[in-house]
Amino acid sequence: MASVLVTGSSGRIGRAVVAELVRHGHFVRGFDRVAGPGPSECLVGTLTDRPALDRALTGIECLVHLAATPDDADFLTELLPNNLIGAYHVLESARLAGVSRLILASSGQVNWWQRQAGGIPVRPEDPPSPRYWYAATKMFLESIGRGFAEMHGISVIVVRLGWCPRTPEQQQEIASQEWSQDVYLSPGDAGRFFACAVEAPTTVRHAVVNAASRPRYQEQFDMTSAQVLLGYEPRDSWPEGLDA
Length: 244
Hints:
Layout: E1 3-7, H1 12-23, E2 27-32, E3 41-44, H2 50-57, E4 62-65, H3 75-97, E5 101-107, H4 112-116, H5 133-152, E6 155-161, H6 168-175, H7 178-182, H8 187-198, E7 206-211, H9 224-230
Parallel strand pairs: 1-2, 1-4, 2-3, 4-5, 5-6, 6-7
Helix pairs in contact: 1-8, 2-3, 3-5
């Protein structure tokens, strides 16, 4: 069993990830702006609070980095501090703490225009076509993840996540569009994916994978590498798992 820090542990995906890792017997420490239920410990702080991150990462073997501004927002006041400066602090703190595996949450939006043009299913190795500034910050995270794997020998798994709705309005938006239902990621499948990533063999040194639930109409994301490398098999399909 591993000691795992989950940033963004009080969010929609974070709660599901914490619950699944606890079920698997891992020691889970949460880190978020507000305390949430579930983890063995929960520390409150922000991604720009380096001392708080240093405390949170003490004794941790695996980092699941979910915390970020989750969609397009003002770049200078939200995306820059949370998704770029925050990424710098959390990854450097993890490196200095001796964390052996980084699992970094990216987004399916990094291949937005390819998918919109019909280039599906999108493969992890396809050239990125970011939707806008939020997706560009995720490309930064993906790139430095590769750098950490090569420079420091840390196992790095980057996951381009499907759409796990956070609000009733987002649920209604998914219900109104067939393609949205095909990129749906249920909380249960999100939890199961990250458990697979935490428990993946140490031979996985660097990987970029897609993660979504089972498509309802047409496959949007090629998840072969997630299956082969990590053993991830989605169970749900829209709208299964919404109430989890």
